[in-house]
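Long-time lurker. I teach an intro course on protein structure, and each term I like to show students one example going from raw sequence to a predicted 3D structure in C-alpha cell notation. This year I'd like something fresh instead of my usual example. Would anyone be willing to generate the C-alpha cells for the chain below so I can use it in lecture? Attribution to the forum is fine with me.
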Amino acid sequence: MKELQYCPKCGNKTLQFNEINKLSCTDCDFVLYHNCAAAVAVILRCRDEIFFTKRSQEPKSGMLDLSGGFVDPNESAEETCKRELMEELQLPIDVSRLRILGTRPNVYHFKGIDYNTMDIFFEYEVKEKFLPTLELSEVSDGIWVKISNLDFSSLAFDSQRNFLRTWVEPFS
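-- Reply from a regular --
Happy to contribute to a lecture. Here you go:
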C-alpha cells in the first residue's frame, strides 16, 4: 500500500497508509479502509486422503493449494465453496454437506499488494476419489495426498500450513 501516494479525490501526493488498514489524505477528507477479505479453502477428503490442486498462477505458482477462493459481494462462504469447486474442478457439491472447521488469518501477496484475508476452512467428504476436469487457467494439476504423507512445506499459503498442522493431529 506504500506505493499508493496520490489521493484519488484531490490528486495531491498526500495519501498515507497507517500500516494496518487505512489510507487517508492529509489535504482532504478522503479515507479508504483496506479491510480483511474473506476467502474459503475446502478440504476435499476421501477417507485418509486430501485432494490438492497445483497452482497455475502467481502467487505461489506450482505449489499445492486447497480448492477455494475469495468470497464475492453478496455471497455466503458456502456459496463461494460451491462456485469455486465448480470453477476449478467442475465438481458439483451439496452445500448442506460442507462442514465449517475454523479460520486463520493470511496475507495474499498479489501484484505488489498485500491483501489481508480471513481464510475460512471447510471439509467436504467424498465417498470415492475422483479425477476432476481442471480449469487450467486456475489450477495446473490435482493430486490426492495421504494425510500421513502431507509435506507442509509444499503448501502455498501459511494459513493452510498452520490450519492443516492442527487439523491432521487426530489422523496421526
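Some talking points for your students: The chain has a mean pLDDT of 93. The beta strands are 15-17, 22-25, 31-33, 37-46, 49-55, 64-65, 67-70, 99-110, 113-125, 139-146.
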